[in-house]
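Audit log entry. Action: structure prediction of a protein-small molecule complex. Ligand: nicotinamide-adenine-dinucleotide. The ligand was supplied as SMILES and no pocket hint was given, so placement is left entirely to the predictor. Protonation state taken as written. Sequence taken verbatim from the request; no trimming, no tag removal. Recorded inputs:
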Amino acid sequence: MPTALTLHGAAIDIAPGALATLGARVLARCPAHRIVIIADQTVAALYGDKAVAAFAPAEFPPLLLTFPAGEKHKSRSTWGTLTDQMIAAGCGRDTVVVALGGGVTGDLAGFVAATYLRGIPYVQVPSTLLAMIDSSIGGKTGVDTSAGKNLVGAFHHPALVVTDPRLLSTLPPKELRLGLAEAIKHGVIADAAYFGWIATGLRQILHGDRPDDETALRLVQRSVEIKVQVVRQDEREAGLRKVLNFGHTIGHAVEQVTGYGVAHGEAVAIGMVAEAIMAERLRLAERGLADAIATVCDAAGLPVRLPEHVSPAEVVTATRTDKKARAGHVEYALPRALGEMAGSETQYGVRVTDADALRALEHL
Ligand SMILES: NC(=O)c1ccc[n+]([C@@H]2O[C@H](COP(=O)([O-])OP(=O)(O)OC[C@H]3O[C@@H](n4cnc5c(N)ncnc54)[C@H](O)[C@@H]3O)[C@@H](O)[C@H]2O)c1
Ligand SMILES: [Zn+2]
């Protein structure tokens, strides 16, 4: 069953096959003379023609702009090339940008839209599981610099999100698994039944590494609902939105000490297990929670231990540079139970000492 959710007044349309009717969906929401579709070369090769055809017949056919796939191209240099191409094509304020791709494309094209002529509308068409359930929602756009990820950016909400879970059928299995880490996180922070469904349905979700229509729709839909609910209640990240950081304080530290050798979803899986152990040790959570999370992550093919060459101590040191670090201690978003977060009385930030964090990591 297709479903519609909204955030910032913008619909998030989730429907298998939605890409075929992209043109009508976009133009109903943002009447525009020019459509600029931005995609990386991999996604453009798979879906570029279909996306362009979805706008026919159009006064001006959409302009398809591409860049090489990969995080290293989420850069100011690619932003410069894309905006130059739009200027050369004479794109005015009556242009809408369509970000067709994973989180790299969404962040980059969203930043192009946020800055082009001081801001024009854009539509997210996420094509990875991570982009469908995470990066396309929340309005964060930006690019990386050599000093770090996402250092230059802007909040710019899409006018519309068109999510076609069928695009997952071509996603490499590893990318699907990385996205599953965020879905598992959504279950832990907000919905024990969803967590249970992922746990028991994993084989089906990963069946041939490609979920069927019904499974993909349910997976994407429930995760999106959870993220929307959290973001809607806390736009400025003053409190509740912190719960989305579950697994991410340790996760970011693991990414950092491995020089991003461990992928984000993998680092988040390790982080969720470590942080659940912290919650158990601090008696915020019942025993067994970390094991339950580890079992699901493991079944999803995600790591639940630090890589051998990484020491717990260096990970703890790296948490100190995480932007969530406050003087003298680090604040974590920790679970109380499956589907429920601890620390509602302290805006969902739980102070954890380095010694406690270290013991949890040694326990992995
Ligand atoms: N804005 C936010 O709130 C937010 C949240 C989380 C992550 N992010 C960002 O998202 C980025 C990671 O996103 P990602 O994991 O989607 O990476 P990605 O965009 O690089 O996509 C991963 C790979 O999959 C390929 N691909 C995408 N869709 C495909 C499909 N349907 N079929 C076959 N191949 C496909 C891409 O070409 C790429 O090689 C990071 O830059 C991260 O900072 C942003
Ligand atoms: Zn994440």
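Audit: result stored. The chain has two domains: 3-170, 177-209+245-363. Residues 213-233 form the longest helix (21 residues).
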